[in-house]
Fold this sequence. Notes:
Structural class: alpha+beta
Mean pLDDT: 96
Number of helices: 11
Radius of gyration: 24 Å
Helix content: 25-40%
Shape: globular
Strand order of the largest sheet: 14-15-18-13-21-19-20
Amino acid sequence: MIRINNIKVPLDFDFSELKKFCAGKFNIPEKNIYSVRLAKKSVDARRKNDVHFIISVDISAKGEKSVKNAVSIEKFVYTVPEIKAKKRPVIVGFGPAGMFAALVLAMAGTEPIILERGMDVDSRVQAVETFRNGGELNPDCNIQFGEGGAGTFSDGKLTTGIKDKRIGWILEKLVEFGAPDEILYLAKPHIGTDKLRETVKNLRQYVISLGAEIRFNSKFVGYETENDCISAVICNCGGNDYRTDTDNVILATGHSARDVFEMLYKKNIELSQKSFSVGVRIEHLRKDIDKAMYGSFAGHKALKAADYKLAVHLPNGRTIYTFCMCPGGFVVPASSEQGRLAVNGMSCFARDAENSNSALLVNINTQDYGSSNPLAGMYFQRELEEKAFIAGGCDYSAPVSLVGDFMVGRISQKIGRIKPSYMPKTKFARPEEYLPDFVCESLRMGIKEMGRKINGFDNPKAVLTGIESRSSSPVRINRTESLESVSVGGLFPCGEGAGYAGGIVSAAVDGMKCAEAVINKIVSEINK
């Protein structure tokens, strides 16, 4: 099989005629082509008068090696050995890292036990909607915690900066469990929070069919050791503690499990500080962003809601960048602790809501924490979230400001044509009430520069909603080359929460790696 890259096709291209197109373009008799597959598809909108697709195709054909500019490819086949573990491995957390760790361990026949502090995804949806509609926050089941992890209530974005042969296999599995097959070829694939929920449930049912056990509402609260190695985990369910014997634990709790970080710190597990970013969500009208990105092609039936990705290096040494951009989406409450407020972005597969939003973040260095404590970054986050909670009126209303008012340092008085999408409520407040001065200074400079890159980005009526503080973990749980904690054998820190991933795909890859490390450890012990 060969792959041919960088093929330009118009927006009106008929992809059902792909085989015929390739036969003519590459001078291969159509009868000699065994198969053609769309491998990649992206929008090239650099010239607003010539918006088109750039595609890559995989072709299997007689005489394929003679095609110019083609690259030979081989399909990656993922396998794991079938083993019988003396004790069932335990996975803490059922987000992307935990799910794919569970999948690999279940495929190997180890019958893993998964502990998830939140509820199953259907019950979790109810808890999230209750909070969004003004009800109480459930600290153990919310946009951060519960089946599927934080990614389930985002956009299901699958873009990643890492290169790993496992990625294609992960995408194929997601499609097998219900994700749209377009994620296999889109340059910027996404599932959408609505379709991701069903995908998560199907994956769960599959690992259970392979012998895995999932315990919801089971919070990881401790562990026991013997000879400096894990011998058991303790979880709390319904107010009671339960002990489970195990000698291998994959710790995939996510970046918001602050109680776990504190517990590990008290137990002298080696942790280290990690930089992260903080800022706000910026909202524009979806149609305005589409127009800015696509020009006169905006609204074309072949184009979905436009996205963007921006970064500016500032004179003050900081960097401001957009993150987790949600075309046609909503700003949602991402709080997980009482008295602290955080926001995130979410969109469904259709991406057809009125607004488009993105995190607008400024980098925070470990020097900004003012302490050598490995949890200093976490405390820094908490302090800002407490200020945002107060700025919003102490009832989980989100503090908002219009860009035009923020740029001159005044509090907003009236919403314009762009309505905040955050629920339950919003309250006008100056970002200076909850963000450090250097962050506000950086946001002002960055918004101005980004307005030069995307027409209307600095629209005075655009809405800023705070605080976006959960983009990544401020803590790293240090691990060895075998992926075990440097402090305790059999403990495998994993994914975003442990500081080794940044997004759904990279977390899933790290989950697979940790599962493979557990399998290798078990095999090594069997062969002793």
